[in-house]
Amino acid sequence: MRSGAKVAVIGGVFVLMAGGLGYGAYSMLGEDLAGGETGTVAESSEVRTGPPTASEIDEVSKDFLKAWAAGDGAAAALLTNNESGAEALLTGYAADAHVTGAVITPGPAVGAKVPYTVKATVSYEGRTKPWSYSSELTVVRGLTTGKALVDWAPTVVHPQLTEGATLQTGESSTAATEAVDRNGKVLDKETYPSLGPVLDTLRKKYGDTVGGSPGIETWIEPADAQLPDTTLLTLAKGKPGKLRTTLDANVQAAAEKAVKQFGESSVVAIQPSTGAISAIANNRADGYDAAMLGQLAPGSTMKIVTAAMIIQNGLGSMNSAVECPSTVSWEGVPFHNLNDFSITGGTLREAFARSCNTAFIKPVKPLGDRAGTALGQEARDYFGLGQTWETGIPSFDGSVPESSGAETAASYIGQGKILMSPLNMASVTATAKNGAFKQPHVVARDLDDRPFATARALPGDVAQQLREMMRYTATGPSGTGTAAMASVGGDKGAKTGSAEVDGQGTSNSWFTGFSNDLAAAAVVQSGGHGGDAAGPVVAQVLRAGP
After folding, report:
1. 140: left (phi > 0), else alpha (psi -120 to 50), else beta?
2. Which residue among 84, 180, 256, 496 sits deepest, i.e. has the most Cβ atoms within 10 Å of its Cβ?
3. How far apart, in whole angstroms, are the C-alpha atoms of residue 514 and residue 51?
């Protein structure tokens, strides 16, 4: 232990009072930790079982927080169920993160969970700044000892810490950047929370390119060196280099608000004429960027690609008659429409608007051996799916693999092995609207001369039919997207989707649409019908466009 720090207990608050920059001979209620007990729950020869009691939860959590506040990482780690994993982070709080003072205030326990706030002081090379955040710990019973222990997780130290990540304070490893939207408006994490990981990635990748200089910061350094650092506190700003993105602050703001309507929701908006990404937003408990990286079955939104394949292969057209029975069989496996509805004497346009599954399976049968590959070929050659997209940040680029058996039929309605992200489906709609694929991107290509994916332009009549079917879906009396798109103006079109997921009681809600020169796609996991949850998200984003 280093000299110069004392910890006091004042009204249930653990206060580290640092005398200098180090932690030291701790004094807790007048007793020296260096030579005394660490305050653990009294040992017993009998191994206890069952959940920890309220008194055990109170005692262990307080003893842990006392030791942590005192800077005694080793003593705190002994009170966890993973001593070796805990000690490095707890001792690094002072040594690596340069925390020189901490006030930890526990709240009332909720079951076995104890929430607390941390008000710390970070000091580095003469620069000092306060740092506050909240987290929680859980008390469990040790499997072998029977003792009540803190269930160790990196989030005990900070809620954003992940396995193998560390807290660091010093000169940042990447130059400071000031990201701006396409019109020069500054983009920051506080105003646009969903952009946090995007801005961190852009800084890591392009910070040096745009001429910035590093500052003094506290950050999370992930275990994976390919991932960007996450800045938590800035003690001294570096000189930022300006990084222009394709994002539109107005559309981004609308996207941020839209996803807050539903849990586990994500949306992406794209400018069809250029492929420029206008907005990326997520509302997820895990913080995952599902908007760009999600890999989910897209459900009936995939029928945009299926319709293009049907038309280009001479299997039908927008105004051609189609069969839409309530059920169709593929190699002995039945496929149903929602609530087993059917359409008599309908066209492909009506089947598209009402999202008839069977009408997008029956026409494919004449393809024979090509049925398992035709959709993937259409997706790659005309929509750019499955190629490598150099968007400027990590992205999933869609997957339409070769299929066989019943999976072939499932793929044509966006199930089976088909995997998409909101980015991918927004691009599909943008391609239909523009008539040709433009690779989505969040920073200009000439910033680093990276290669863009390319695809063949859709034949003019095919693109026109896709747009007309999407317009009818968004405006027609029986269109599944009409209600959601009612508030959207301009030249508009849409496609709904509901994707079933094994083991999930309610399907994922998908919706994609366009209005003038803006396309968007959203997914709300366990959101049900496409128009009910994802539809309002997309509509709110489109209303912010041109």
Report:
1. beta
2. 496
3. 54
